[in-house]
Specification:
The chain contains eight helices and twelve strands. By secondary structure, the protein is α+β, with helices and mostly antiparallel strands.
Length: 333
């Protein structure tokens, strides 16, 4: 084993992923719907994996040691990468040090960048000969959205139908230089959300009367959005984005008990985006399982839109992000 460091950027789904397939091995972590995302520059996780000198695993995030469920998730994922590498014997003990350059567990896809970076760093540390598709499939097993953070730009993850997940594959649709757009992240609060995505997805799948409609209508959104991205047509892509977003949140809100990730500022920001559009700025929104609003705009209108959104009472910050690169790895001395 050697030491390696990986950097992976967060991604935001423009056509949403929400819900897991119930007919397969839970360890495969297969989504119930496909998704289309944009990888974001500047919102990244940097993870180093190196041998542990004392024969015990040590994990930390932003300088804080991890234990309990977070530590178990990391250990299990290291085991997956070791097994995928086809290596014999027990996995060596590892030190894993991660740094998030984005808020953790706050609806900004920190698990996507986190597990993508962990997958790439571990594969390099174990000297595994895995291509990007195999890395993406492994990352998905740690976090569904992590499959997309292996790639830069616009990325599609297909649901697939095979029980072994072999056709649930992420692939780049268009690179980061394909389209000069920006995604604004409108932060409406601080701190982690109260209900994590994994728990929320299962609650929604098992209790929401709207869940099946959400699943059954998602594929058409995915195909239409993919074509709009390839054509660089924001006025076709935007309404699909918003429709996907509000269908997902409608299914969440109809869960028992309801899942409502929004804050009052979230709603005010939604209305401001719509006001921007009425004023002639082609701005379109989406919201993950959290309170923050993300807004897709042409690059030459990003400053204008950000300035307007910063005036919304309660908005803590608005950051502007270009399409981001694929995950990258370096082997350390």
């Amino acid at each position: 084993m050697r030491s390696a460091r990986a950097t992976a950027c967060s991604n935001i789904a423009l056509v949403k992923y929400w819900g897991k397939r119930a007919d397969t091995d839970p360890d495969l972590n297969l989504p119930d719907v496909g998704s289309l995302s944009l990888t974001l520059a500047d919102l990244a996780t940097v993870t180093t994996v190196r041998p542990a000198v004392d024969g015990r695993d040590h994990f930390e995030l932003d300088g804080v040691p991890l234990d309990g469920r977070p530590a178990r998730r990391i250990a299990e994922h290291l085991d997956r990468v070791w097994a995928a590498a086809g290596l014999r014997g027990s996995r060596p003990a590892c030190v894993v040090e991660s740094e998030n350059h984005l808020p953790t567990a706050a609806g900004l896809a920190s698990s996507a960048s986190g597990f993508a970076a962990l997958t790439c760093a571990a594969a390099a540390a174990f000297e595994a000969d895995l291509d990007d598709a195999a890395l993406s499939a492994l990352a998905r097993r740690g976090s569904g959205s992590a499959a997309r953070s292996i790639f830069g730009g616009f990325v599609r993850l297909d649901r697939g139908v095979r029980p072994d997940g072999s056709d649930c594959v992420a692939r780049p649709v268009a690179g980061p230089d394909h389209w000069d757009v920006r995604l604004l992240v409108v932060r409406t609060t601080t701190g982690p959300k109260k209900v994590g995505s994994t728990e929320g997805m299962e609650r929604c799948r098992t209790t929401s009367p709207y869940y099946r409609a959400w699943v059954e209508t998602s594929e058409a959104d995915l195909d239409a959005a993919t074509e709009a991205v390839l054509d660089r047509d924001i006025d076709r892509l935007g309404p699909i984005m918003e429709h996907s977003c509000f269908k997902m949140h409608a299914a969440m809100m109809a869960s028992r008990p309801p899942l409502l990730y929004w804050k009052g500022t979230t709603v005010d920001a939604i209305h401001e985006v719509w006001a921007l559009r009425e004023a002639g700025c082609p701005a379109y929104l989406t919201i993950d399982a959290g309170p923050h609003v993300k807004v897709l705009v042409p690059a030459n209108r990003a400053d204008e839109a950000a300035g307007r959104l910063r005036t919304v009472p309660g908005v803590e910050a608005v950051t502007i992000h270009a399409p981001g690169p694929a995950a990258r790895v370096e082997v350390l001395p």
